[in-house]
Amino acid sequence: MTTGLAADVGVAAAAFVGTNIDNTLVTMALVAGAPEDRARRIAMGQVIGFVVIVLTAAAAAVLLFEISPKVVGLFGLVPLAVGVRGLIALRAPGQLEARREKVAQRAVGRSLTAAALVTIGAGGDNLAAYIPLFRVGGAARLTAIALVFVAGEVLVTFLVLTGGRHPKARAAMTKLGSATVPLFLCAVGLLVMLEAGTFSLL
To answer: Domain range holding 192?
Structure first.
C-alpha cells in the first residue's frame, strides 16, 4: 500500500510539472507586462483557473467521462481570443496615448478573471493527464494527489510572482513592447490546438 501510494505521489508530481510549465510561463508573462499592483490578482486568477481544471478532471473521473483530445484543444481558443483582442486594442484609435494603453491593458487580460480564463484555456493537457490520476480510487491516494497539487500550485504562485516582478523580466517586457503579451497568448492558443489536433474539427 505504501509503495503504491508513493508511486501515485511520484506520478502526480510528474504530471503536475509536465502540464504546468506552459501555464507558469504564460502567467509570468502576464505579471511581467502588467502594473505591479495587478500582480497578485493575476496570480490569484491562475490559482482559480487551476482549481477549475482540477475540479473538472475530478468530475470527469467520477462520471467515467472521456474527453477527446481534439475537443480539449478547443480550450486553446481562449488565450487566442484574449491575445487577438489585445492586438486589436493596440490598434484602436484614441486621442490620448494613456487612454489607449489603458484599453490595451484591459484587453490583454491584466485581471483576475482574464488570468483564470487563460489558465483554463491553456489547460487542455492538464485534463488529459489528471483524469486518469483521479481514477486510482482510495481516500488516501486521492488525498496524496491533492496535496501534491496544492504544494505544486504554491510553488507555481511563488515562481509567477517572483519571476514576473523581477526587474529584468519587467524591463524585458517593456523593451519588447506592448504587443508581446498578446502575441504570446496567440501563440499559446495556437500551440494548444495544434498539439491536440483540434484544427481537424474546424
So the answer is: 2-200
Burial 54-78, CB ≥16 within 10 A → b, else e: bebbbebbeeeeeeeebebbbbbbb
How many CB atoms lie under 10 A from the CB of residue 95? 7
- Tens of pLDDT along 127-167? 888 888 888 777 888 888 899 999 999 999 999 999 988 99
pTM: 0.81
Provide the CA 184 distance to its chain's centre, in angstroms.
Answer: 13
Instruction: Give the span between the Cα atoms of 184 and 161, in whole angstroms.
Output: 18
- Separation CA 202–CA 198 (nearest Å): 7
How many domains does one find in the chain?
Answer: 1
**3-class SS letters over the chain:** CHHHHHHHHHHHHHHHHHHHHHHHHHHHHHHHCCCHHHHHHHHHHHHHHHHHHHHHHHHHHHCCCCCCHHHHHHHHHHHHHHHHHHHHHHCCCCCCHHHHHHHHHHHHCCCHHHHHHHHHHCCHHHHHHHHHHCCCCCHHHHHHHHHHHHHHHHHHHHHHHHHHCCHHHHHHHHHHCCCHHHHHHHHHHHHHHHHHCHHHCC
